[in-house]
Amino acid sequence: MEQEYLSIFDEKHQKVGKNTRSFIHKHGLWHETFHCWFVYIENGVPYLYFQQRSKVKEDFPGLFDITAAGHILANETVNDGIREVKEELGINMSMEELQSIGIIKDSILQEGFMDNEFAHTFIYITENKHLPFHLQEEEVSGIFSSPLAEVARLYDKKVAHISLQCIHSKNDDLIAINATLKDFVPHGTGYINTVLMSAIRIK
User: Rounded CA gap, 97 and 109, in Å?
Assistant: First the structure.
């Protein structure tokens, strides 16, 4: 399998070189990613969409995460990141349909895993609940949603769990999942707060 090369940055987002994805994660080096959050609006109420990561994923299998996301390779631009939406979700869209909420620092630091990202983060607003999802099975096992306000209450620890409604899954009988914070990929608090506040402002 061909190695993926990513650009390496310092903490001020200045490019300082490149190396393989595995080397960068092993040493906790800063790199760039593309994040796209889907927000569905129903009767003025915004719902945030999460992907459930495939159970065969090496990192955080089965946990809930950004609707679509991926690394920006060393030879790519930020706009090339839109491919992740098509690859993971089967949804065709252009960058013009997305709203940028900026570059957000996001760190996930655990034993044996150091992921330091400059996340180019976007929001896609839709009023179509029945988007034509076609999931990349080795990456994504389902799409789930919750009212944005409930997600915020969970991360503020005002509630211990929330209900995630199943939007699309191979399991036709699955209606909803009761989720706690442990069921989500542990993105940095600053990152999550920025996403939630930005989604509230642009809804």
Answer: 32
